[in-house]
Amino acid sequence: MTTVPMVDLNDGHAIPQLGFGVWQVPNEDAQAVVAEAFRVGYRSIDSAKIYENEKGVGDAIAASGIPRDELFITTKLWNDDQGFDNALRAFDASLERLGLDYVDLYLIHWPSPHRGLYAESWKALVRIKQEGRARSIGVSNFTTANLQRILDETGEVPVLNQIELHPRFQQKGLRAFHAEHNIETESWSPLGQGKLLDDPAIADIARKHGRTPAQVVLRWHLDNGLITIPKSATPSRIQENFQVFDFKLDQHDLEKIATLDDPAGRIGSDPDTATF
Ligand code: NAD
User: Fold this and answer.
1) If you take atom 8 of ligand 1, which residue's CA is the nearest one?
2) Angle CA(108)–CA(113)–CA(114) in degrees, nearest 5?
3) Beta strands 72-77 and 44-46: pairing type?
């Protein structure tokens, strides 16, 4: 079976470089979809309270028979659970729905700056990590200013920041800040939610390597040292997205894809102005 490379985190733990995202997988389908991902070889699952499928993910974990220490399970604190006490309570509830006694990674889902609570929430995550109930803690959708604030207030460096990142939105500034602080970058919507798969430059590279556009884009993330978590509920695509460890992009391909970066390429919300 294919072995997914592991990325070392700044706290001594390690995460598979390729995982499986489950946003928009309904809870009633999650057990079967995650079971298919496990069958193909994925061992890292990216869930969140707001996805409302932690129970289905937990059922798949329980039914899989895979030893717990071979899995890497991530979930996230939703915005309206921010604050120190609320975050501790929300974490307990997530763990309960997942049927686990620890998660590998707990993330603050969005900074939600209008609430003014992300630094307090981060302190709760530090506590959860000290208790061993999350092996690692990190953030998602944090800007450099948000990151700087939690570093200044707690000295605790998140292991990673999970951000929107794909060839049309390459986040070079934020990635440089991460590198400076030993924070890994994890790409969400790595395939641009499928929207960039008909890009002619990607199609050309795919033809050249005898691969699909999705495989080329995922390979681009891996070749850039990014951690990534593509989502699909279709068995053939779940498999296709995993078959990316037997080729590499060359310098010319990487340079071509670098030109697709677009300041207006964001698909999701801007963390600074999001009102949720
Ligand atoms: P994605 O870029 O992974 O695209 C998924 C979509 O692309 C699928 O629904 C399908 O339509 C298409 N697709 C997938 N594989 C394909 C293939 N091989 N060929 C053709 N089309 C294919 O988008 P996503 O689901 O938004 O992001 C992945 C994961 O990132 C999510 O499931 C979730 O876990 C995470 N995420 C996190 C945040 C956050 O705020 N932290 C936000 C969005 C997503």
Assistant:
1) 232
2) 130
3) parallel
Question: Per-residue pLDDT tens for 73-93?
Answer: 999 999 999 999 999 999 999
What confidence tens digit (pLDDT) does each residue in 40-62 have? Answer: 999 999 999 999 999 999 999 99
Tell me the CA distances in angstroms from 86 to 81, 126, 151, 256, one per residue in order: 5, 14, 21, 46
What dihedral do alpha carbons 40, 72, 182, 179 form, nearest 10°?
30
Instruction: Give mean pLDDT, residues 231-259.
Output: 98
Q: How many CB atoms lie within 10 A of CB 271?
A: 18
What separation in Å is there between the alpha carbon of 235 and the centre of ligand 1? 14
Is pLDDT of 258 > 90?
yes
C-alpha dist (Å) from residue 177 to 33, 171, 183, 243, 251? 35, 10, 8, 31, 24
228 closest CA partner among 13, 16, 3, 11: 16
CA distance 54 to 64: 15
The closest residue, in CA terms, to atom 3 on ligand 1 is 230
User: What are the pocket residues of ligand 1 if the criterion is a CB atom closer than 6 Å to any ligand atom?
Assistant: 21-23, 46, 109, 140-141, 162, 188-194, 197, 214, 229-232, 237, 240-241, 268
**How far, in Å, from the CA of 170 to the mean position of ligand 1?**
16
d(CA 53, CA 25): 7
Give the CATH number of domain 6-258: 3.20.20.100
- Average confidence (pLDDT) over 86-111: 98
Q: What is the pLDDT of residue 264?
A: 96
Q: Whole-prediction pTM value?
A: 0.98
